[in-house]
Amino acid sequence: MDLFLVEYLIAGLIGAVCSLFIQSIIYPRFSKWILQRRNAERLALINKRFDSFGEIFQNLKLQQAGWSQDGAFEPSTIRIELTENNYILPDQIRINILDRYEEEWGNTASDDKKIGVSSLMISRIIDNPEVEEKGLAQKIIITTHTYNYYSFLATHRRLAYREPADMRILEPYLSKLVKFSPIHGFPNPLSVGLTLLCESGNILVLPIRTNKLESGGDWHGGKTFNAVGEQANISDFRNELGGKKISDPYVIARRGLHEEMGFSQKDIDNCEIRIHSLAWASDICDHKFFGYAVTKLAENEVRNRWENSPDRHENSELHFFSVETRSMATVFWLKVLPVSESWAPEALFCTARTLALYGKLLPEDLLPKV
Predict the structure, then answer these.
(1) What is the rounded CA–CA span in Å between residue 54 and residue 57?
(2) Do 136 and 162 contact (CB within 8 A), yes or no?
(3) Can you point out the beta strands (E) in 130-174?
(4) Which of 27, 180, 327, 330 has its CA 20 to 30 A from that of 113?
(5) 361, 333 in Cβ contact below 8 A?
(6) Is 12 exposed, middle or buried (0-12, 13-18, 19+ CB in 10 A)?
(7) Of all residues in the chain, what percent carry a pLDDT higher than 90?
(8) Quick check: 188 and 182 in contact, CB under 8 A?
């Protein structure tokens, strides 16, 4: 065989092998790396935009964004442990605030047991690129205690009203406040808020909070609210091996979809639920998880379930907005910004992050230059 032909065949074989290697191994990995990098840049831009919102979110600060590639937390990365400790309101607050308002609160709310934050720790648990890629390299561990609802009203809620007589009692506790940390001497509630998207993510569902005091209207009454806004309670916890009681924000979110939107267990199981943010409210100093739920249910089906929900009395109206395309979502958002005062801060915060992370808005759409 001619030597030139042999060299030609060998070169062709090497070229074919190299081409196959590039197409089947190098190119897919490179493409994956490019997509991951672009997505990481998108998530970073979204979080940077939130740092630029200033007073629009009225004291809500992003404490931790989700670690997964969709910007959310995997359920296993958030652990909430319930201890046997029960918060006791300090005597000074009980005598000077609780005793003064208790009769009034008794007309509009019950003094139920709730769950408060004792400690909150965010840490890296493993240094592994593959685990990092899956959003599983970090973890939030929250230890909690029980408290009575009136204790929250006498502490955190009174901070929102800034009445001089109350602040003289509460300010000594704030003097040792560390940003993003629970306040020593306060119950420190923990809640979960959800944005709801129906019709497979194309319709945004927004309730209007009632003005009736007996139904919760003393808190942002008449304003646009999240579809779900639930404080953690004892029923959210389950026993694990060893006897510890544990939960996570996804459990609280699922309960909220039933209680506030009337979703059945099947409806909830068919939802895509993602918790994407941990925020801290600097005005009342409490912690809130935020996320979204996406359902295939049609607008009329969602409305029918809401009308028959256990907590129907908490909201007076239910509105639907099309966000099927970026242009539709952008038009909606541009109409919201000038009237942001008519929104509860947690609803504004959660809706904005949801629309951006779910891909309805680009980072630059969140705070467009005028």
Answers:
(1) 7
(2) no
(3) 138-148
(4) 180
(5) yes
(6) exposed
(7) 72
(8) yes
How many angstroms separate the CA atoms of 147 and 149, rounded? 6
Query: How do residues 45-76 score in pLDDT, each as one tens digit?
Result: 887 777 666 556 668 899 999 999 999 999 99
The amino acid present at 64, given as its one-letter code, is Q
- pLDDT tens-digit map of 331-350: 999 999 999 999 999 999 99
Read off the pLDDT of each residue in 219-223 and give the average, rounded to a whole number: 91
**Beta bridge partner(s), residue 5:** none
List Cα–Cα distances, 116 to 55, 231, 282, in angstroms: 27, 9, 16
Which one has a higher pLDDT value, 48 or 12? 48
If one counts every other C-beta atom within 10 angstroms of the C-beta of residue 260, the result is 24
**Residue 235 one-letter amino acid:** S
Enumerate helices (H) and strands (E) in the chain, giving the number of each. 14, 12
Query: Cα-flanking dihedrals φ and ψ of residue 119, to 5°?
Result: -150, 155
Is the CB of residue 275 less than 8 Å from the CB of residue 76? no
User: Quick one: pLDDT at residue 9?
Assistant: 60
Question: Which phi and psi angles does 3 have, rounded to 5°?
Answer: -60, -40
Query: Cα torsion at 35, 36, 40, 42 (round to 10°)?
Result: 20
Between CA 119 and CA 277, with CA 187 as vertex, the angle to 5 degrees is 55
In this prediction, residue 231 has a pLDDT band, given cuts at 50, 70 and 90, of very high
Which two three-digit tokens encode residue 292?
A: 């979204």
- Mean pLDDT over 166-193 rounds to 93
Q: Six-digit token pair at 186?
A: 């306060």
Q: CA 71 to CA 49: how far, in whole Å? A: 14
Q: Model's pTM, two decimal places?
A: 0.89
Residue reference for tokens 């593959």 = 130
